[in-house]
Amino acid sequence: MSAAKSALNKAGQVVLEGHINHCIKDAVEEGDESKIENFTKAIERFANMQ
Fold it and tell me: Could you tell me how far CA 38 lies from the centroid of its own chain?
């Protein structure tokens, strides 16, 4: 179970990094507050899964 949880967490980190590098970077540059807000909520959900 521990190995599976660790693998899922790593996969989540990879997805999150990709999202930050593309979508969130663009949202910040464009000043899109709704995308930034949604990202913040996603981070909170991810943190609660740990």
Answer: 10
Q: In this predicted model, what pLDDT tens digit does every residue of 1-50 receive, in sequence order?
A: 999 988 988 998 898 888 888 888 888 999 999 988 988 898 888 788 76
Give the residue from 42, 13, 14 showing the smallest Cα distance to 27. Answer: 42
Token pair listed for 7: 């693998």
The residue whose two tokens read 């909170």 is 44
H, E, C per residue of 1-50: CHHHHHHHHHHHHHHHHHHHHHHHHHHHHHCCHHHHHHHHHHHHHHHHHC
